[in-house]
Structures are given as structure tokens and as C-alpha cells.
Design brief:
This protein is mainly α. The protein has seven helices and no strands. The longest helix has 15 residues.
């Protein structure tokens, strides 16, 4: 790491593998707190290639709920809708972006994918601007 320039070192430190993304997308299996979930998610959303979310939206090895969440994140960040190969209305019950969020406050993209809610814009923008919650 000492031989790398600062930018290359930063990139290596924040690289994530598939398990990190799947953990966030399958959040009902891993998180008991919205804040813990956001602490891991937001750094991956800031200054990242949005196509990683598109890739997981089409990954049939993860659940349909996770694929909906991934498609939502792709659309939220890129402002482009993504067509999925399945319909959200075929799932039992309405899916929340963070599984334990019962509030129906979905933005346009969340509703497009049949999600009950999406990212909290205020909290995400605060993180983007200040780097803290």
C-alpha cells in the first residue's frame, strides 16, 4: 500500500465484493437497525459506478426482492428506469427498501418498482455533503 498513490489506495480500501452488495440488497437477513444499514450503504452509493446496481438487478442468484432494491438504486442514482424480467406484483406483499421500514413514502422510482419506500433523500444528501449522519 505504501507504493500506491493516495487515490489508488483509497480505491483499494473501498472496493467491495459481491457479498457486500448482496448483504445490503438482502438486508432483511443482516440488519436490525436502519442506521447500521445506511452506514454501510451510503459509502457505496457515493462516487460509485451505478452499473453495479444494474448488474445485480439482473442477477438471478439473488432474491427478487433484492433485485427490486438493486433496480431501484440504479434508477435513483442514474435517473433512468430499468426494465426487469419479472413483475413486483407477483411477490407476496409490498417490499420495503429497508425491510423494517413500514412507512409508505416511496419516491417515483420506488413506486415504479413496487417498493413501499425508498432512500431517505434528506439523510442521503446530508451524508453526501458532510460525510456523516
Amino acid at each position: 500500500m505504501e507504493a500506491l498513490d493516495l487515490e489508488s489506495a483509497k480505491k483499494l480500501l473501498v472496493q467491495s465484493d459481491k457479498s457486500t452488495y448482496v448483504k445490503l440488497l438482502e438486508n432483511e437477513n443482516y440488519y436490525n437497525s436502519l442506521l447500521d444499514f445506511e452506514r454501510e450503504l451510503y459509502p457505496l452509493l457515493v462516487n460509485r459506478d451505478v452499473n453495479v446496481w444494474k448488474k445485480y438487478a439482473n442477477d438471478t442468484s439473488i432474491s427478487k426482492e433484492a433485485r427490486l432494491r438493486s433496480a431501484y438504486l440504479y434508477s435513483y442514482l442514474s435517473k433512468k428506469p430499468l426494465n426487469l424480467r419479472f413483475k413486483a406484483d407477483k411477490l407476496k406483499g409490498k417490499v420495503s427498501f429497508y425491510y423494517n421500514n413500514k412507512v409508505e413514502d416511496g419516491d417515483g422510482f420506488a413506486r415504479y418498482y413496487g417498493l413501499k419506500n425508498g432512500l431517505d433523500d434528506l439523510r442521503f444528501n446530508q451524508y453526501k455533503n458532510t460525510g456523516s449522519f
